[in-house]
Design brief:
Layout (H helix, E strand, L loop, with lengths): L2 H6 L6 E7 L14 E3 L2 E7 H12 L3 H8 L5 E2 L6 E2 L13 E9 L8 H4 L2 E8 L4 E7 L3
Antiparallel strand pairs: 1-3, 1-6, 2-3, 4-5, 6-7, 7-8
């Protein structure tokens, strides 16, 4: 089973995952050793701090800053974390709405917090669109 699949199943709670669209990567060969190639780009699953540092190094975006900024706008990130639907796509159809980056982490089930967190492990995902929009999505991991 790949790290990507394990992450999606909630089996890598200490790791972060990020997707880089092929158009957003200047040297994809440099990722070959660490990344899983997917249809439109590359997925990396790395231990927490290393993953956050690698994401910032690859994108120039602080992942925690991205999370804070993106939380204010709800969007839809695909459940495999390799793309998303920009929430302003319908309003601005002439713009390029390709998902450039997705950054995600999992949070363990926490019944004390309630809501979604009482139902199971939760995936938090933050996306950056080519149009500049930043948005978030979260869901309970399927068992």
């Amino acid at each position: 089973m790949s790290k990507h699949t394990e992450f999606l199943a909630g089996e890598r709670p200490d790791d972060v995952l990020f997707f880089l669209h092929e158009d957003a990567v200047s040297n994809p060969g440099a990722l070959a050793e660490y990344a899983e190639s997917v249809e439109d780009g590359h997925v990396l699953v790395l231990p927490g701090d290393d993953g956050r540092n690698a994401f910032q190094s690859a994108t120039g975006i602080d992942p925690m800053g991205l999370a804070q900024e993106a939380m204010g706008t709800e969007g839809h990130v695909s459940d495999d974390l390799t793309g998303a639907v920009c929430p302003v796509e319908e309003e601005e159809p002439e713009e390029n709405h390709t998902t450039r980056f997705v950054f995600a982490f999992a949070e363990a089930q926490n019944e004390e917090v309630g809501g979604l967190y009482a139902e199971g492990d939760v995936i938090h995902a933050y996306a950056v669109c080519a149009c500049g929009e930043r948005y978030s999505d979260k869901w309970v991991v399927d068992e």
